[in-house]
Structures are given as C-alpha cells and as structure tokens.
Specification:
This protein has about 180 residues and is of the alpha+beta class. It is about 40% helix and about 15% strand. The chain has a 4-stranded antiparallel β-sheet with strand order 3-4-5-6. A hairpin with a 5-residue loop joins strand 5 and strand 6. The protein is rod-shaped and about 90 Å long. About 5% of the residues have low confidence.
C-alpha cells in the first residue's frame, strides 16, 4: 500500500466518504474553508486531490453543520485555529453545543473558538453533588414538618460500611416508629 502522503482522492470520492455534496466540496475549496492538500485545481479540467486528513476535516465540518452550527461560525472557528498555527485540523478535538464551537485541548482545558480562543470551563454536577453531600453529612439538619433537629446519618467507610449501629434506612424507620 502507498504511503498516506502519496495518495490523493478525487472530489467525488471525498464527497462520498465525507457525506457531502460535490457542490459543498467545491464551494468549501473555492472559499478556502477546506483546501485539498495533495493537489488543488489549477485550471479547467484539472482535478483536486484530497488527503485522508482533508476528508476527516470535511466530515467534521459536515457534522458541525448537522449539529446546527452555521457555516459562518464553522469558518470562524477554523480560521481561529489556523491563526494560532494549527496546521493539522484533523489532529484536534472539537465539541459544539449547536451554536458555538469549542476546541478540547485536555479534560481540563476547553477553548471557545468563536470568542477569540477564550477559555471556558465546565462544572461536573455529579462532583458538586458528592461534595455537598459530604459537607452536609457533618452539619445539622431539621425535619421540614416538625422543625426538630435530625441526627446526621452515620459515617460510612470506603466500601459503604456503616458505623454507629446501622444504616440510613434503618435510622429513618426508627424515627418513623418513634415519632
């Protein structure tokens, strides 16, 4: 098999692989969105040749369009990447909420490409849930109906073992019987 750098795919093949029309391919090439890296058209009758990586980028553009991102925003995101010197667009991870496009550099770093590369952050709700649950387990609470203080549930070990004589369900049953 030939080296990947020595192989090019004509427009119809690239369209089929990326799931786009030839009209889209031609427009994106003429406007500079996705230019074939193996060989660009050089006049009437010449054939563009797209590399495997070019076709990956075509597929990403198609998926962003399918997700509802406007072609204008896709173009802006790709231009932002290119202005930062990202030559190999196929080697990055893009995520989108349907409106904007983000580059995911690592699990901790996500960049909004439509806001000039401004960093954004995510909040894992499950992490906040566990943190608050742990904090509240050491603080007093009161019953919503009676206003009486409710004892904190017993501490649990790493394997879910309960200490101080029972589990939370048993404590709730005892409180219900008592009150």
């Amino acid at each position: 098999m030939a080296d990947a750098d020595d192989v090019g795919y004509r427009g119809p093949t690239a369209c089929h692989a990326a799931g786009i029309s030839y009209r889209q391919l031609d427009y994106w090439a003429r406007t500079g969105l996705v230019v074939p890296s193996v060989r660009d058209a050089s006049g009437s009758g010449s054939q563009r040749l797209y590399s495997f990586r070019d076709i990956v980028v075509l597929k990403v553009v198609k998926r962003l369009l399918d997700a509802g991102v406007s072609l204008q925003n896709i173009r802006k995101a790709i231009d932002t990447l290119r202005s930062r010197g990202v030559g190999d667009l196929a080697g990055i991870t893009l995520i989108s909420d349907g409106t904007t496009v983000y580059e995911c550099r690592s699990p901790e770093e996500v960049v909004d490409l439509l806001q000039g590369g401004q960093g954004v952050f995510g909040i894992a709700i499950s992490g906040a849930f566990k943190e608050i649950e742990g904090t509240l387990s050491h603080l007093p609470a009161e019953a919503a109906t009676t206003g009486e203080e409710v004892p904190a549930p017993p501490a649990t070990g790493s394997a879910g073992d309960t200490y101080a004589g029972g589990d939370e369900l048993a404590m709730r049953r005892a409180r219900r019987r008592a009150g």
